[in-house]
């Protein structure tokens, strides 16, 4: 019969939730992913810099040969102060002041004594209107921020799933070690008792030899189980970055498998399709590609810019109101660049559409697979638990026969080994169920 272990001091317990909280806070890969997400935000800020207002100030002094009085030196000074801003819609605005003194070189540079104040606007009527390269870059940088966020969410989910699987492997190994240790303790206890009976002449020497051989076999199994625990603990240490050693801790008991509710599958499918980051990421990538397509389509248009700059010239010899109005146009003879980029964007969007369809199917299959694993693990657990109970009863009956002198030590050992194997199978199924449950949670972003 398997005896309960009696220990003087139990090691501290580490629950799954405690472990996953440590992983989320300290795992380098997750910390690095968050840094990468912040870098994406910094890139968006850099793209916004293309539309920062610009303050310009210029001054120059000239001495040159006068065109109107050749051979006579002329001197002048030219100054300008202005603010310019570009908008994502292509409109450029500016305001400023120019003031010149002396004999300026160009009549168009002349101002009254108080200078000339002006406003300036340039708006693209075709190419560059509504969308342009800088505006497209900013829009895509803004899309990259939520894309980075959902990517971090996906990495977090996969990391926590991997950590949970490792935790359950460790928990199962610890419980199987306990089974092996109990079996060894029973063997040692029995061998000790039989030696005392041998001294009283109540047992044959061959029986003691058999008992001792069984102890060594069980000791070897216990050592292997100890190695399995150490291996699982080292695997768990990959995720433990709080300075603790899993080998000095104990896991919580594995959950008993229970059947899934009938509505669990449809609810999980709906939640997974809504929450999974892969689908959100593809949707954001599609929108980014569409921006490339719109920019390429816009670049097929001719460049037609409207320029208008009203102003006023003040002071001595000032002329009052001034203005500049005009239209500039440029028509490309070939459009291979824009056409190629437009077709590239169209094909990329087609590819992403197919990827979204595949992801939807893959996510559905993941949820169904995890559901199937949970259901079958529960069914196997019921059968394995029933087997364990029956083998335990057979073991207890065989031990009573041996104690009454009607059985053999060999059969007692066989019955105890069968009970231990049945107990280990129950633990394996509990691990399988726990890991399937973790996969079921991760499939619907449940961590």
From TrEMBL:
Q: Which GO terms describe its cellular component?
A: cell outer membrane; efflux pump complex
The answer, when asked if Phosphoprotein is one of the entry's keywords, is no
What InterPro entries does its record include?
Answer: OMP_efflux (IPR003423), TolC-like (IPR051906)
Q: Which UniProt keywords apply?
A: Cell outer membrane, Coiled coil, Membrane, Transmembrane, Transmembrane beta strand, Transport
Q: Where in the cell is it found?
A: Cell outer membrane
Main location per the UniProt record: membrane
Q: Which Pfam families match?
A: OEP
Name the coiled-coil region(s). 335-362
Q: Which GO terms describe its molecular function?
A: efflux transmembrane transporter activity; porin activity
The text of the family note is: Belongs to the outer membrane factor (OMF) (TC 1.B.17) family.
> What's the name of the protein?
Outer membrane protein TolC
Q: Specify the species.
A: Armatimonas rosea
């Amino acid at each position: 019969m398997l005896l309960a272990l009696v220990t003087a001091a139990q090691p501290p317990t580490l629950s799954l939730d405690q472990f996953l909280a440590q992983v989320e806070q300290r795992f380098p890969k997750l910390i690095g992913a968050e840094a990468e997400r912040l870098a994406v935000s910094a890139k968006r800020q850099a793209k916004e810099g293309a539309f920062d207002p610009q303050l310009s100030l210029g001054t120059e002094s000239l001495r040159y040969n006068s065109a109107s009085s050749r051979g006579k030196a002329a001197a002048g000074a030219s100054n300008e102060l202005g603010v310019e801003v570009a908008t994502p819609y292509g409109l450029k605005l500016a305001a400023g002041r120019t003031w010149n003194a002396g004999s300026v070189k160009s009549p168009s540079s002349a101002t009254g004594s108080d200078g000339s104040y002006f406003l300036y606007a340039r708006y693209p009527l075709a190419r560059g209107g509504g969308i342009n390269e800088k505006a497209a870059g900013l829009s895509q940088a803004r899309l990259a921020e939520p894309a980075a966020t959902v990517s971090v969410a996906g990495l977090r989910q996969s990391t926590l799933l991997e950590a949970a699987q490792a935790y359950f492997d460790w928990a199962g190994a610890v419980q199987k070690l306990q089974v092996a240790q109990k079996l060894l303790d029973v063997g040692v206890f029995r061998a000790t008792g039989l030696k005392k009976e041998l001294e009283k002449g109540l047992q044959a020497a061959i029986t003691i030899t058999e008992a001792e051989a069984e102890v060594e076999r069980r000791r070897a199994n216990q050592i292997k189980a100890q190695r399995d625990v150490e291996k699982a603990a080292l695997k768990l240490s990959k995720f433990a970055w709080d300075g603790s050693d899993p080998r000095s801790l104990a896991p919580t008991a594995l959950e008993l498998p229970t059947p899934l509710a009938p509505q669990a599958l449809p609810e999980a499918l709906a939640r997974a399709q809504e929450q999974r980051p892969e689908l959100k990421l593809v949707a954001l990538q599609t929108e980014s590609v569409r921006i490339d397509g719109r920019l390429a389509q816009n670049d097929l248009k001719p460049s037609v810019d409207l320029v208008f700059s009203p102003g006023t010239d003040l002071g001595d010899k000032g002329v009052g109101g001034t203005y500049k109005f005009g239209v500039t146009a440029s028509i490309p003879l070939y459009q291979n660049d824009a056409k190629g980029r437009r077709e590239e964007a169209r094909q990329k969007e087609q590819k992403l559409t197919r990827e979204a369809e595949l992801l939807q199917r893959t996510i559905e299959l993941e949820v169904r697979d995890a559901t199937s694993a949970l259901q079958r693990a529960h069914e196997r657990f019921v059968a394995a638990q029933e087997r364990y109970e029956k083998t335990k009863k057979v073991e207890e009956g065989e031990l009573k026969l041996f104690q009454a002198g009607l059985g053999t030590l060999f059969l007692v050992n066989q019955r105890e080994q069968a009970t231990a194997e049945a107990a280990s199978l129950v633990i394996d199924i509990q691990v399988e169920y726990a890991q399937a449950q973790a996969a079921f949670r991760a499939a619907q972003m449940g961590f």
